[in-house]
Amino acid sequence: MEARVFQKDRTGTTASAHRPSEGRLTAVPPKLSVECRVDILFLLASSAAATPEGFQRAKAFVKRFAQAVLGEASRARVGVAHYNSKLAVAVPVGEYLDVPDLVRSLDGVPFGGGPTLTGRALQQVAERGFGSAAWTGQDRPRRVVVLMTEARSQDEVAGPALFARARELLLLGVGSEAVQAELEEITGSPERVMVYTGPQDLFNQIPKLRGHLCSQPHPGCRARPLDLVFMLDASASVGPENFARMQSFLRSCTLQFDVNPDVMQMGLVVYGGQVQTAFGLDTHTTRATVLRALSQAPYLGGAGSAGTALLHIYDKVMTVQMGARPGVPKVVIVVTGGQGVEDAAVPAEKLRDNGVSVLVVGVGPVLREALRRLAGPRDSLIHVAAYEDLSHHQDTLIEWICRGEWGPHPRGSLQGGTSAR
C-alpha cells in the first residue's frame, strides 16, 4: 500500500492524492511533521470509569494530533480503536488517507460504558489491531499503540503489555496522574508516558508524542556483541510473588536486544537454597525462546548465597564449554532483594579480575554496604525502592549495558574473560 501523499490542487486547497478533500486542513507546523515511516493506532478507553467527558477529550486529542502532525512531509498513517470489555477498531490504520475525512470520522465513534479491561484490549490490539495495515520487508513501518485513558484497568495488564511489546509494538501512554503508574507498567518506561494535569494540558502533549514516534532510545545497542548472564535471587527472602516481578523485569529488558549466536547471548542462574543454571549462554538462540525460558525459571526458596551463585557462574557458566565466546564482552546482572550478599564481594571481584563486569540491581530495604562492596569500585549499583518499581528502572539498566563503560578492568581482560581459562 502506498503512503499518503498530499498535493495542492489548482485552487490551492490541500487534497489527498487518493481521494478528494472536502475541506481545508489546519496549517501544519513543519517542525511537527513525522519523518519516519510509522503506523499509529490510538487506543481510547471508552468505559464507564473513563467517563463520556474523558472519551471526548481523547477524541479531541486525536483530531488535534492529526491536524497538527499529518501533512505533506508526514510518513505516518493513523487508526483509532476504543475499548471497554472488548476492543472495537473504529478506524483501521490507513483507511482514511485525507485528514479532514479522518477528523470527521471520529465524530461517529460512540462512547461505550462498561468495565475497563485494558489488558484484554492490549492483547487484542497485538493480535489484530494492525491486521488491515500489514506491510512487508523493508517497507514495513514502525507500529505504535498510543493508549489514552483516565481509568485504571480492572484486569491484569503486565502480561498483555509484554505480549504486545514482544511483537515489536511500541507502546506509548497518554493519561491523567491517576493512571501514571499503570501506564508506566504497560509501556515499560516512565519516558514513554505523557501525563496531563487538565484538558488544556492534554493538547500540550502533542509535540511530546510526535517526538516519541521516531525516536530510537538505544541506537546501535541491539547489534552490540555481548555475553550476558542474569543472576536472579529466588530465595525465601524474596518470595514467589516478587520473584515473578523480577522475571517480568528481565523479560522486558530482553525485549531490547537481538538474541542470536553472532550478537547477544543470554544465560540465567537462579539461587536460593541451591544454585541452578536455568539456561546457559548457548542454550537459546532466539529472543522468543529466551523469553519463554525466563518465564519458566524456577522459584527455589530457602536461604540464598549470592557469593556461591557468583562462583557457580565463574566455574560453570562463563566458560567456553558453556558457550562463552573469547573476545566478546561479558556482563553479569545480579537482581537481588539484598539478603545473602555478605559473602559476594570476593567472588564478584574474582569475576572482574577475569574481565567479567558485574552490575547489581538491589530491591527494597537492602543491605546497602554489602551491596556496594558487591557492586565494586565503579559502584555499579541500581537501587530500587520496591519490587513494583522495577519497571521504572529498565531504561537505566539498558543504558548501562549499551553504554559499555564497564570495562576493561585493571587486572583483567575482555579477551574472553573466564572463558579463556
Automatic annotation (TrEMBL):
Alphabetical keyword list: Disulfide bond, EGF-like domain, Repeat, Signal
Biased composition (Basic and acidic residues): 1-11
Protein's name according to its UniProt entry: von Willebrand factor A domain containing 2
Region span, Disordered: 1-24
The UniProt record lists the keyword Thylakoid: no
SUPFAM superfamilies: vWA-like (SSF53300)
PANTHER family cross-referenced by the UniProt entry: COLLAGEN ALPHA, PH DOMAIN-CONTAINING PROTEIN
InterPro entries documented for this protein: ECM_Assembly_Org, VWF_A, vWFA_dom_sf
Pfam family, one: VWA
Domain VWFA: 39-213, 227-401
Record keyword Repeat present: yes
Source taxon at top rank: Eukaryota
